[in-house]
Amino acid sequence: MPARRRSCRAARLALLFGLAVALPAWAQPAPDDPLRDDVLGATMAGEYAAQAGRLDEAIDWYLAAARASGDDIALAAHATRLALLGNDDRRAAQALALWQARAPRTLDMQAAQAALAIRNGRVRDARRTLETMLQDPSGAGWRFLGPVLAAARDPAVSARVLRQLVASGSVPDSLPAWLSLGEMAQRLDQPALADEIGARIVQRFPGEPRVALLRARQLRLAGDIDGARAILVDTRDAARLVPELRYAIAMEYEALDEPLSAEQVLAEGPQDPRTQALRASLLAQGEDKDALGALYEELKRGAGDPNPMQRLLLGQVAEYLEHHGEALDWYQSVPGGDQRWQARLRATRMLHKLERGDEAYAALRALQNDASAIEEFRRVAYLMEAELRAEDGDVEGEYDAYTRGLAAWPDEPSLLYSRALMWERRDDIPRAEADLRMILVADPENVAALNALGYTLADRTTRYEEALELIDRARIAEPDNAAIIDSYGWVLYRLGRKEEALVHLRRAYTMQKDAEIAAHVAEVLWELGRRDEARKYFDEARKLDPDNRSLLRALANTGA
């Protein structure tokens, strides 16, 4: 019996007996494979292939299952989405045709149709479909715009379609829809379009504070700091009437790198522990020791009542003030509740700051062995010990903390993951891989471990095909996760698919402004000979995190 046929029979047996097996690499269905006509068997084979990270095989099996089913809408829809995720336009079109033949034109179906059109450069078709979606009676069509525009291989195409949609008059008269369009224009690095959308929003929704906040953000991103600040000053009056706006305004001030102005906004309304904690954090960020001291005194006046949350907050403010001894006293005075365990953890850090390392480690050991403590905090105590040992340069102590933690909680994902990062930091890639694989043995669909292992193999080894399979498994689970999209782009680059890699890396960067992603974009641009554009992204990465390890490696690799 041919090997491929045996694999299909194995899939049937696994289905009957509930066995979780993965199909081998050669399990892609042959044209004459009878399993193609077995809906359940083909579906299970597709799922096994997806779990193994073999996206091409998964697409083929699910498409076969959809065809064999005759009328199953869900299978056709799933095959379409998988094919779009796998950049397989031919099979995406085939699956979409099945879906369209079996079901009414739903918004998600139209979104798949528009995504396929925009990916293939059929901009007019994509725009027409999107216009129809925007006019859907449900008013929810705009929610699909982001994923559709992200399907374009060139961000300039996405920007052109967005500009045409704004001009067409098809956008519903809904503030969330228009705000979403403004966000998209900003992510696509289209300040002129963002300004145009902002002007339309102001015209359509006069006097709406959220509109003013959007305009302030647009001006900030365009570099008009004075203009953004002026809008925020005007909007602060509205915050007095609508307290919920205080947090949004404060966030904008913080984005302007004005934490003290953000704190003043929060100080002008009702106070609760959350607001006070945010104020303390902002004052510490702004290094205003006087104002932080005043807040500390204000909080101390209410400390007669041994409220656990109040005592914990006092410890945190004292810690911000670098009053480590007082912070230790407050933490040790937290009387009970879940705050008690957090306070005990923070107290160990204060002991370490006070150069009482032996006491800090003894306190951590006591918490690790306290059967009455919440398990989460006992586990975190091992992570805290490893972190403090690393700060001390105690290589063996850091390893020992992880070893003891894993003895208490065998195969605990958080401990294995952190230890894997330790190994990677020490350039011991085999051990990093071993720990990440241990996570995947217990939880094969652990997205963080799949992505971390895939990225590590792509970045630190030459096992690119294996890395791609792992990253594809993570992409199937979370297709819109910026970190996973970055990993996917990076492994494509390592495979030599530079232009394709750039599309995904740019998309990841529009979703998350991160130094590592910016460094990846820059390195690919450099390799493509687009040096001036690459330098721009290197500069952005330096502003975000000048000590980022990926950035430093990229600079060394390129000589930029």
Automatic annotation (TrEMBL):
The UniProt keyword set, sorted, is:
Signal, TPR repeat
The residues forming the signal peptide are 1-27
The residues bearing each TPR repeat, given as ranges, are: 515-548
Pfam families linked: TPR_14, TPR_16
Q: Which PROSITE patterns match?
A: TPR (PS50005)
The UniProt entry, under InterPro entries, shows:
TPR-like_helical_dom_sf, TPR_rpt
Task: Tell me which PANTHER family the record gives.
Answer: BLL7664 PROTEIN (PTHR12558:SF33), CELL DIVISION CYCLE 16,23,27 (PTHR12558)
- Write the protein's name: Tetratricopeptide repeat protein
Provide the species name: Luteimonas aestuarii
